Structure formats: C-alpha cells, structure tokens
Amino acid sequence: MVNSTSGALLYSEVQTDSMNDVVLQYAPLVKRIAHHLLARMPSSVQLDDLVQSGMIGLLEAAKKYDLTKGASFETYAGIRIRGAMLDEIRKGDWAPRSVHRKSRRVAEAIKLIEMRTGTDAKDQDVAKELGMSLDEYHSILQDASGSRLFSFDDMLEGEDSAIDKVAGEVPNPLDGIQNEAFKENLAQAIATLPEREQLVLSLYYTEELNLKEIGQVIGVSESRVSQIHTQAALRLRSRLSQWD
Fold first, then answer.
1. Stretch 105-112: mean pLDDT
2. Domain 1-94 fold
3. Per-residue pLDDT tens for 174-233?
4. I need a surface site. Which of 53, 113, 178, 179 has the fewest CB within 10 A?
5. Closest by Cα among 193, 190, 191, 188 to 120
6. How far apart are CA 242 and CA 26, in angstroms?
C-alpha cells in the first residue's frame, strides 16, 4: 500500500515528466511564434525574452487545457504562447511618448481626410495634412512599427475570449456581445482598407509570412512593408475610434 506522502511524490514526478514532454514537443512552436513576432519588433526586443515568456505561456496552457472544450492543444497553446509574448512586449513598452503622440496625430489626420474626401487617405495626403514631408511621415510610421498602443495585435485582443472559452472560464455575457460586435466592425473595416494594406495584413496574419518575405511577394523593401503594416493599423484605429 502506498502512503499519502509517497503517493504525492509519485504524482509530482509524473506531473514533472508530463510537463517536460510538453516542453520538448512544443518548444518548436514557441520558437516559431517568437520569430514571427520578432520580425516586426524593434531591436530592443530580444528573441530569448520572447521564447522565455512563451515557454511560461506553454506551461500555463498545459496546466489549464481542457480536452472536452473541443480545441486542439496546439491551437490552445498557440493562443496562450502568443498572449504571453505580447504581454512581455507590452510590459517593456519600448516606444517613447513622442512616438505615441505622433501616431495619434497620424490616426486623427487619416480620419479627417477620409471624412472630408470620402476616399482612402494616401501617404502624401496625410503628410500634407500634418504639414511635413513624405519622408518625415514615413519616418513616423517606421518609429511606430511594433508600438503596443497601435499594433494590430492589440486590436485583435478579442482573441483572449477564445482562451476563456477553451479554458472553461465564464466571461461576462455582455462582454461577449461587445466583443462580437467589435470583431464584426473590425472585419468590416479591414475589408475597406486599400488593397495593398489588406494584402500585407493577410500575408502577415493569415499566411504568417515575415516582413522580409512579404516584401519579396509585393516587390518592396522590408522597411516599406513595416510602414504599410503600421499605416493599416493606424487607419483601422481611425475608423474604429468609437471603440477606444
């Protein structure tokens, strides 16, 4: 007969072995997600930091995963891993206040132009509205790339609700209604973006290409892809300002 102390030790050993197996099996998933995020982050964000936070997310996923909820473990773990990495990036908030301030000005300029003209605000239109050169405007977009305040990832934070559902947690029903309404409005706003911005977002978020690969597909530099990505996020921010 196994006493309670030895039984607890045995359970602990089994649990540790199980966690080790999870880490070994899904470490490549953590690294893949880390490299995908790093491709659009500033140099201050380190790959090792993303991997470390992703591993924590993986272990949390292993502890909370519920097979009866229908989602595969890899899908559930991917959400947790990516969420943990984004949390780590947000904590660092590398961008100075001036970057956030300029990004808000860009979003406001885009909104004003599009309300006034009824058409998509082009780069040169926004630069003129802001009273700056096109190069200065592109520099702002480059600086804002990866900013937590205006990243497209933050606009998709509704994915957290998927974690709650899979984990078996019970969200506020009103929050769910608001979240679904936001997703619907976001999808509609994406569909109205200029074709090139839609393509960049699709290649990045759906096809999971990095910025360099996207540049090769559409025939522009990696830095220009970054600018297009940032401009798409700012345009969406301006069109969804009622949700701020």
1. 92
2. Rna Polymerase Sigma Factor; Chain: A (1.10.1740)
3. 455 566 777 788 888 889 999 999 999 888 878 878 888 899 999 999 889 988 988 998
4. 178
5. 193
6. 39
Give domain limits for the chain.
1-94, 95-244
Domain 95-244: state its class. mainly alpha
Interatomic CA distance for residues 213 and 200, integer angstroms:
11
Averaged pLDDT for residues 232-236: 89
Candidates 147, 79, 71, 77; CA nearest to 107 is 147
Q: Which amino acid is located at 237 in the chain?
A: R
- Measured CA to CA, the distance from residue 81 to residue 100 in angstroms comes to 26
Please state the three-class secondary structure of the chain as a single string: CCCHHHHHHHHHHHHHHHHHHHHHHHHHHHHHHHHHHHCCCCCCCCHHHHHHHHHHHHHHHHHHCCHHHCCCHHHHHHHHHHHHHHHHHHHHCCCCHHHHHHHHHHHHHHHHHHHHHCCCCCHHHHHHHHCCCHHHHHHHHHHHCCCCCCCHHHHCHHHHHHHHHHHCCCCCHHHHHHHHHHHHHHHHHHHCCCHHHHHHHHHHHHCCCCHHHHHHHHCCCHHHHHHHHHHHHHHHHHHCHHHC
What is the pTM (predicted TM-score) of this model? 0.60
